[in-house]
Design goal:
The complex is a heterotrimer of chains A (423), B (403) and C (370).
Chain A: H1 2-10, H2 22-64, H3 68-72, H4 74-82, H5 91-107, H6 110-120, H7 125-134, H8 143-150, H9 157-166, H10 173-178, E1 181-183, E2 189-191, H11 199-230, H12 233-248, H13 251-262, H14 267-274, H15 290-314, H16 318-326, H17 331-359, H18 363-368, H19 376-385, H20 390-414
Antiparallel strand pairs in A: 1-2
Helix pairs in contact in A: 2-20, 4-5, 5-7, 5-8, 6-7, 11-12, 11-15, 11-17, 12-15, 13-15, 15-17, 16-17, 19-20
Chain B: H1 18-29, H2 31-64, E1 69-74, H3 77-95, E2 98-103, H4 109-117, E3 124-128, H5 129-137, H6 158-161, E4 171-184, H7 195-198, E5 208-211, H8 217-224, H9 232-236, H10 239-250, E6 256-259, H11 264-271, E7 276-280, H12 281-289, E8 295-310, H13 318-328, H14 331-337, E9 344-345, E10 379-380, H15 383-402
Parallel strand pairs in B: 1-2, 1-3, 5-6, 5-7, 8-10
Antiparallel strand pairs in B: 3-8, 4-7, 4-8, 4-9
Helix pairs in contact in B: 3-14, 5-15, 8-10
Chain C: E1 11-20, E2 29-37, E3 41-45, H1 52-60, E4 67-72, E5 75-76, E6 87-90, H2 102-111, H3 117-130, H4 146-158, E7 164-168, H5 176-193, E8 196-201, H6 204-210, E9 213-218, E10 221-226, H7 228-233, H8 238-243, E11 248-257, E12 262-265, E13 271-276, E14 286-291, E15 297-298, E16 307-318, E17 322-329, E18 332-340, E19 353-358, E20 363-367
Parallel strand pairs in C: 3-8, 3-9, 6-7, 7-8, 13-20
Antiparallel strand pairs in C: 1-2, 1-4, 4-5, 9-10, 11-12, 11-14, 12-13, 14-20, 15-19, 16-17, 16-19, 17-18
The chains are: A mainly alpha (423), B alpha/beta (403), C alpha+beta (370).
């Protein structure tokens, strides 16, 4: 064997005892195991692709790609792309417009295009739907004149410049909207009118509230985790169950429980009134506002802070504190200089978890947030479920995703991801 | 790969994941287990095929078995109950088709998602007019030929018997309902009488309940601010009018509890969370009539609207849905519903048949939004205005709320 | 259980009637009296649960005595918090702060004492040089080998010039070679610095190698406090005899006794003459005879040996410098004899019959186990 190897060294690739190259032999012998490894991970990979990567990719795609207009009015969209965009187009384009509108009426699809245009030109929806109903009466030229007769808005150059814009399937418009910006009639990016501005403010509020919730969770979780980590196993297990019990309860149930606790006729206010801390007439407004959201979310997210903290603290032997004290540090210094720095991986993991979870939190702010306790996810839900502006919802989600990734990158720079310990 | 023999086992370090490496190597070293594993693989494959076949059969079978059932979706609570009593039960009795009732909170988002995904589970949906029109424009709802609707008992064709505007391209109206506001008269003895009172915090201190949407709120704000009901939509068509409506809402903003589901306002009133709240008139009526709550409706400036049946494109039980639609919109059925809730029937011929509430005591006529007394300062919800402006106004409303 | 303390004037640490209980039901340390001299290397040796670590922790200030007084340099320290005791300590797993470099670890005790940076750096470097890790100041503890970590731990306990250093099984995590080397290094540091060291271990050879005196703990009580030599040669009770070094045990009953000699009858009928150490001498008293394997002669020439037995060789193990033989005598199958590997000795084979004998002074009659 050693002879063969020695020969092989001099004559090129290493050969196994039977003369096949060693590399190929190795590949053969490990192939089976590799295939099996692949098969075992395949369900997860497929699941992740199908359930995670694909939908998120589709969502991001949708935020910048909206073909509603060109699908409903394909020929009009095609000619508008080559049109110079000055004033109101001529008879030829109107002829195509009439034909497309007629077709869309037959397909009953004009609503989609109308909705798309309405995002960029509010109030124009009915122009399309009503024109589509009436356009069947036009059976010959002059198309332009007849269409303008149906609705004089067809003679508006602003309408046509916007039609030219929406005829492009790719648009940054939804991202602009998500940042309280818009195109003016000249195609320049300008700030949204002040009364319509909301998203930037909500993003900021979401980050601010998430940071506050994270901080509160940390303040509450740190002593609890410490206690859990130093108590004898039996006691700490029991306490751990108390920590985890709410974790196993439905989010909805817990949020509803907070409503029962905090509403103006609720438990907390009743107690405050009965001990005379507040009068019956001015019960504290603890819910349906930011306070309610913060209280309920802090409670709900607390285990996500406790668990990583606990798991890190559990691994810090008491001898470190003892060593520090034997070296002359009082208990506070020992804690500050020796214990606390060692919990940082847990703190880092816990704060990251809680912060990212709270940024995307939806149900709790929706139920107890009132008006000023709403977060950006509630607006995303609004556009998904109520206004049906999925592209805008996708753009908002895209920005949220980007900011989470940015945050994660920053975090990695500051703390280092390999320093994280989730448990 | 033979069944029995095992090629030399890999070493642990050929794997990235040591745990998995141990697992694989152990398998490799125990040939019989490897063999068993392969056999199991075959069984798994077979199992998967069976499962897929079963699933496919189930999804198609579901449609095939649809003869006996129908899913009707509505707004829940007292309103759904009125439909169950007046439509569903008699329909099942007549045809044997079981009507499954589901609740939703309005809007076409859910049904749009179903239609776009090609997985429609709803057969017939109770929608607001603006949604019926929008859904129709976007091809979500099936067009309905009004000629299939049964004529009035005296032979008047349905198209003439229905109130004007209540037959839409894709929806057939059943009721006229209204957004009003109500208060608890056991708490406010000399109660409010006008919409202006609703916005008057000095005269009537306390929280107000409002639906979390600009719809109806903006109209009511303008009426309360002194705009004549007939001029409301014209006013709202201008930026100044919208500013004025929001400015009026601003005056009570800090004292508003927002509701979303129709069942919430009576509950808010009953819990004392608000002193007055906007609500759907039928909900308040039912709280009074069925539960004996001391609520009083203020009809001033009511915003009335219609609800329609719409059938989603690709409904699994289309035939049944159409049968149900015809059945439930006939003169008698519409009149029957008014026994259970204070919503006006959409057919003229039903009006004379409306009698008393199902307890036999309360006369339903004056409880209807369409009763002449209640209509004095009423306005009808302008669906076209909302179809055009709701995206922008929703956005502004949300911004206003968040500020 | 007496101390061989010399002159109370030089006492540095004193335990006076100290008791410790964790649960209020059992005493972990039972009425401990112990004086430790200035500059002494004292080892507390005992099996786990014997109370030695608890005693150390009470001295360090991490446990409070339930009863009694602990004096340091004549002053009671029961109520002095650990960080004000000025005692250096080396922990079992070193307890080097993992988030600080070696130099930062060493500077820590100086920093909390408010020492200026220049002085700090100088001291740190000096102590690093002392443990021969001069170039390792910037490393993190995790980048050091076990032996290097151990040295840093020792250096850290010494860097602030404490007069007393406690070591809690500091070598337990090292492999055998390293452990032996470190034993000498620690001993060397002790000698060159003149600090008082209280050392806890359960490894008797470690205790024998390093200590001035050894306190053998068992069951919360000091069984014997003596120098390694005395402890080995003259164990005062069966526990010490068994715990320290290898030991042949023979149980029997006293038949007659004088001050210098006792006759003990074994269950198999033979009588052994032994040295009375820890028995009252009453006839019929149960006793354990303790006999070191190297004090047994095989085929002794001398006729003056009082104890002579016929045995059968069971097993022979060649260990280089000596031969370890297991012999069956007086019904005991595990009687061990260590024979120096000299040319004078005949080759023994399993199964051969041999005569073994030992003198009365080497066979100590101790208390019988309860």
């Amino acid at each position: 064997m050693s002879d063969v190897t020695a020969d092989a060294v001099s004559s090129g690739p290493l050969l196994a005892a039977d003369g096949t190259p060693l590399k190929r032999k190795l590949a053969q012998t490990t192939r089976k195991a590799k295939i099996r490894a692949l098969m075992l991970t395949a369900p997860l990979v497929i699941f992740l692709l199908a359930g995670f990567v694909f939908p998120i990719g589709q969502m991001l795609w949708r935020s910048a790609y909206n073909p509603s207009f060109s699908e409903v009015l394909p020929n009009l969209a095609a000619v508008l792309k080559t049109w110079d965009g000055q004033g109101v187009p001529g008879e030829d384009i109107f002829e195509i417009a009439v034909a497309d509108l007629k077709q869309s009426r037959e397909d009953r699809s004009i609503g989609r295009a109308a909705t798309r245009v309405n995002y960029d030109l509010p109030g124009s929806r009915s122009l399309f739907t009503s024109t589509a109903r009436k356009v069947k009466d036009i059976d010959g030229p002059p198309y332009k004149e007849q269409l303008i007769e149906i609705d004089k808005d067809w003679d508006d150059p602003v309408l046509w410049s916007i039609l030219k814009r929406v005829s492009d399937d790719y648009t940054a418009g939804f991202y602009l909207s998500a940042l309280d910006r818009k195109y003016d009639t000249g195609g320049n990016i300008v700030a949204q009118e002040e009364v319509q501005q909301i998203y930037v403010k909500l993003f900021l509020r979401t980050f601010w509230m998430s940071a506050l919730i994270t901080f509160l969770c940390f303040i509450l979780a740190f002593p609890v985790s410490y206690l859990l980590s130093v108590l004898p196993l039996r006691t700490s297990n029991l306490l751990m169950i108390l920590v985890l019990l709410p974790f196993w309860t439905s989010l909805l149930v817990r949020t509803t429980a907070w409503i029962a606790m905090l509403q103006s006729e609720g438990v907390v206010n009743d107690i405050l009134v009965s001990i005379g801390l507040v009068g019956d007439e001015n019960r504290a407004q603890l819910i349906y506002n930011q306070t309610g959201t913060i209280i309920a979310m802090t409670h709900i997210l607390l285990p996500f802070m406790i668990l990583p903290l606990f798991s890190v603290m559990k691994t810090i032997p008491p001898s470190y504190m003892r060593a520090a004290r034997s070296l002359g540090a009082d208990s506070f210094t020992a804690f500050r200089r020796v214990y606390f720095p060692q919990t940082i991986p847990g703190i880092a993991a816990g704060t990251l978890l809680v912060f990212i979870l709270s940024i995307g939190f939806y149900i709790t702010p929706a139920l107890v947030g009132g008006q000023d306790g709403q977060m950006i996810s509630n607006l995303i839900a609004f556009h998904m479920q109520k206004s049906l502006n999925w592209s805008l919802a996708a753009a908002l989600g895209g920005i949220l995703l980007a900011s989470v990734l940015l945050l994660y990158w920053l975090y990695n720079k500051l703390v280092g991801v390999d320093n994280l310990k989730f448990g | 790969m033979g069944t029995g023999s095992c090629t030399p086992c890999p070493e642990t370090d050929t794997f990235d994941d040591p745990a998995f490496a141990r697992f694989s190597i152990r398998y490799c070293r125990q040939e019989n287990l490897v063999f068993a594993f392969k056999r199991r693989g075959a069984i798994m494959k077979l199992g998967l095929k069976t499962i897929i076949a079963a699933a496919v059969a189930a999804s198609f079978g579901g449609a095939a078995m649809a003869d006996g059932s129908l899913t009707a979706v509505s707004w829940g609570g007292a309103y759904t109950k009125s439909q169950v009593e007046a439509y569903h039960k008699p329909f099942t009795a007549k045809t044997g088709v079981n009507v499954v009732s589901e609740d939703y909170n309005g809007g076409i988002a859910e049904v749009k998602a179903q239609v776009e995904a090609g997985n429609v589970t709803w057969d017939i949906i109770d929608v607001e007019l603006s949604d019926a029109v929008r859904g129709c424009d976007e091809g979500i709802f099936e067009p309905i030929d009004p000629a299939i609707l049964p004529p009035a008992p005296d032979g008047t064709p349905a198209t003439e018997d229905f109130l004007p505007g209540t037959i839409s391209e894709c929806g057939i109206a059943t009721i006229v309902w209204s957004t009003i506001y109500a208060y608890d008269k056991s708490k406010l003895t000399s109660g409010p009488t006008s919409l202006a009172d609703f916005f008057d915090l000095a005269k009537f201190p306390g929280k107000r309940g409002l639906r979390k949407t600009p719809k109806a709120n903006l109209e009511m704000a303008l009426i309360a601010d002194g705009v004549a009901p007939g001029d409301v939509y014209e006013m709202l068509g201008t930026p100044e009018g919208i500013d004025r409506a929001f400015a009026k809402l601003d005056t009570i903003k800090n004292d508003v509890v927002w509701w979303e589901a129709g069942a919430q306002p009576p509950q808010l009133l009953a819990d004392g969370e608000v002193v007055m709240t906007t609500a759907y008139n039928g909900r308040i009526f039912n709280a009074v009539a069925a539960e004996g709550k001391p609520f009083e409706i203020v009809w001033d400036g009511q915003v009335w609207d219609i609800d329609l049946w719409a059938i989603p494109k690709g409904a699994p039980n289309m035939e049944n849905a159409l049968e149900f639609l015809k059945f439930s919109t006939d003169t008698q059925r519409l009149a029957d519903q008014a026994k259970w809730i204070a919503y006006g029937p959409a057919r003229k011929s039903s009006a004379p048949l409306v009698g008393k509430y199902n307890d036999g005591k309360i006369d339903m006529g004056p409880q209807m939004p369409t009763s002449p007394d209640n209509l004095k300062t009423a306005i009808q919800n302008n669906f076209e205005f909302w179809a055009d402006n709701q995206d922008q106004l929703n956005e502004r409303f949300n911004a206003w709320l968040a500020n | 259980m007496s101390g061989s303390g010399s002159g109370a004037s030089n006492t540095f640490v004193e335990f006076a009637n100290v008791q410790k209980s964790y649960d209020g039901e059992t005493l972990v340390v039972k009425n401990l009296n112990l004086q430790i001299q200035r500059g002494e290397f004292l080892t507390m040796l005992g099996p786990s649960g014997s109370g030695k670590t608890t005693t150390l922790m009470m001295l360090a200030g991490f446990e409070t005595a339930t009863h009694g007084e602990i004096l340091l340099d004549g002053k009671p320290i029961n109520h002095v918090p650990p960080h004000k005791r000025g005692i250096g300590m080396v922990f079992q797993n070193y307890a080097l702060f993992p988030h600080m470099t070696v130099a930062e670890n060493l500077a820590f005790p100086l920093e909390v004492r408010g020492m200026g940076q220049a002085e700090r750096e100088e001291k740190v470097q000096r102590v690093l040089d002392m443990v021969e890790l001069g170039a390792f100041g910037a490393r993190m503890p995790a980048q050091l080998s076990g032996g290097q970590q151990q040295r840093v731990a020792v250096a850290r306990a010494l860097v602030f010039d404490p007069e007393l250093v406690l070591m809690d099984e500091p070598l337990g995590a090292l492999d055998k070679n390293l452990r032996e080397q470190m034993q000498y290094e620690i001993k060397h540091i002790h000698e060159s610095l003149g600090v008082t060291v209280v050392y806890v271990t359960h490894d008797q050879s470690e205790a024998l190698t390093m200590s001035d005196r050894i306190a053998v703990f068992n069951d919360g009580v000091i069984q014997q406090l003596a120098s390694p030599e005395v402890l080995y040669e003259k164990p005062e009770n069966a526990f010490c005899a068994a715990f320290i070094g290898e030991n042949n045990k023979l149980n029997g009953t006293v038949t007659s006794a004088t001050k210098t000699s006792v006759k003990v009858k074994l269950p198999t009928g033979e009588t052994v003459t032994a040295l009375p150490v820890n028995i009252s001498g009453k006839k019929g008293e149960a006793t354990t005879l303790s006999l070191r394997p190297e004090r047994v002669f095989v085929n002794p020439r001398s006729k003056s040996i009082p104890n002579m037995f016929q045995g059968t060789v069971q097993e022979v193990i060649y260990l280089g410098d000596h031969i370890r033989t297991r012999i069956n005598i007086a019904g005991h199958d595990d009687f061990i004899v260590k024979i120096p590997n000299s040319s004078a000795h005949p080759a023994l084979n399993p199964g051969t019959s041999v005569k073994v004998g030992w003198s009365a002074e080497d066979c100590r009659a101790l208390d019988a186990p309860a």
